[in-house]
Every structure is written in structure tokens, then in C-alpha cells.
């Protein structure tokens, strides 16, 4: 039965009160990939292993220093912001990919509005030959949302290194478009239709 069907029958919903939860109090895992390629939960080593009823997490470079910070939203309890103050961060590239909106807006820059290029796929090629990939995703799952800004950790490279960035997306007509740009680290906003 879908949510739309259940909403028509309010008596079928649980009656939640402060302190109630569906999944029990568990700690939030913090997985880190080891040198052996496996992922390990380091939550206890980072003092992040207090049990809670978490209903949301958001990651972003909140303080603009190139590393990802995160917020945990807990149900019935205090929510927390964790600022990443790692002294050993490398360079990063943040891409905000936009498509022009269908309706022009005379009051905006160049008379256009732009919307996130949901579905755009990006491949960043690093100097040593490895590649990083990501896709603009507006969110998934029940009530899931995600920032359309893509964050790539580049490691210890010279900040002036121009990296090949391959972008593929669909325009408003559904046509597949692609381009390759040379970008340096930092935050970049790209209006896709104008980049080809």
C-alpha cells in the first residue's frame, strides 16, 4: 500500500508521541575505507557512537574550507552539526551544474534563470590517472533530498593544476549533450548550455 493510499486512512498510521521510534536507538556508523579496500566503522574512535534515532543527515562544505562537514537530524532529541577541522586536507572541486530555465527572467543575470542539472554525470581525471565520478541527484528514498552541488576530494595536488572534467547531461529536449572542461580546484558554477 503506497503512502497516498494510507493517507486516506489515518487510523492505519501509528500514533507517535515524544520519545517513540520505529528502529530503536542505534549509533550512526561512520565508515572509512581502509588500505585493504574494505570499509570500517570508526564511529567509536570519533566519539560518534552515542545511540540515537537519526532521521536525516546532510553533508556540505559549510565553512568553505574544502572539506565536508555534516549535520545529523535526530527525532525527539538534539540534532548535531559536525565541523570537519582536519589539519591535513587536500584540494577539492565543487561543481554546481545548471541548465537554463525554460522561462526567461528579465531581472536575473543575463535575463535567464537556471535550475540544477539533475541527472548530469561528471568524470574528473586526476594527474596520476585515477578518475572520480558523480551524478547530480536531487535525492531518493522516502522524503530524501540531496544538494545538487557535487564535491570531489582531489587530494594533494597543486591548486593551479587544470584537470580534465567530462560532463554529460540532457537538455530540455532530452538530447544528450557532453563537454570537456579544464578546471582547477575550488567552487565552480557552470551553466551547461552555454559551456558548449
Structure description:
There is one protein chain. The chain has 196 residues and is an all-beta fold. The chain contains one helix and 13 strands. The strands form four sheets. Strands 6, 7, 10 and 13 form a four-stranded mixed sheet that branches. It has a four-stranded antiparallel sheet with strand order 9-8-11-12, with no helix packed on it. It has a three-stranded antiparallel sheet with strand order 3-4-5, with no helix packed on it. The longest helix has 5 residues, at 3-7. The mean pLDDT is 85.
Keywords:
196 residues, mainly beta, four-stranded antiparallel sheet, 13 strands, 37% strand, globular
In brief:
The protein is mainly β and 196 residues long.
Count up the helices.
Answer: 1
Structural class: mainly beta
The main β sheet shows up as: 4 strands, mixed
Helix-strand sequence: HEEEEEEEEEEEEE
Q: What would the average pLDDT be, to the nearest integer?
A: 85
Bulk shape? globular
Task: Note the gap between the termini.
Answer: 46 Å
Number of strands: 13
Question: Unreliable segments (pLDDT under 50, ≥5 consecutive)?
Answer: none
Helix amount: under 10%
Q: Classify the beta-strand content into a percent band.
A: 35-45%
Radius of gyration: 21 Å
Amino acid at each position: 500500500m503506497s503512502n497516498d493510499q494510507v493517507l486516506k486512512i489515518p487510523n492505519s498510521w501509528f500514533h507517535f508521541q515524544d520519545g517513540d521510534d520505529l528502529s530503536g536507538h542505534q549509533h550512526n556508523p561512520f565508515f572509512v575505507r581502509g588500505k585493504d579496500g574494505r570499509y570500517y566503522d570508526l564511529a567509536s574512535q570519533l566519539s560518534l557512537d552515542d545511540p540515537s534515532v537519526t532521521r536525516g543527515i546532510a553533508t556540505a562544505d559549510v565553512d568553505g574550507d574544502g572539506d565536508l562537514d555534516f549535520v545529523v537530524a535526530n527525532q525527539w532529541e538534539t540534532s548535531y552539526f559536525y565541523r570537519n577541522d582536519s589539519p591535513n586536507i587536500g584540494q577539492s572541486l565543487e561543481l554546481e551544474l545548471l541548465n537554463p530555465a525554460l522561462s526567461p527572467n528579465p531581472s536575473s543575470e543575463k535575463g535567464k534563470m537556471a535550475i540544477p542539472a539533475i541527472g548530469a554525470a561528471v568524470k574528473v581525471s586526476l594527474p596520476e590517472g585515477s578518475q572520480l565520478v558523480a551524478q547530480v541527484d536531487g535525492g531518493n528514498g522516502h522524503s530524501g533530498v540531496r544538494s545538487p552541488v557535487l564535491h570531489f576530494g582531489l587530494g594533494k595536488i597543486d591548486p593551479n593544476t587544470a584537470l580534465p572534467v567530462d560532463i554529460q547531461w540532457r537538455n530540455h529536449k532530452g538530447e544528450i549533450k557532453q563537454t570537456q572542461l579544464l578546471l582547477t580546484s575550488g567552487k565552480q558554477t557552470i551553466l551547461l548550455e552555454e559551456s558548449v
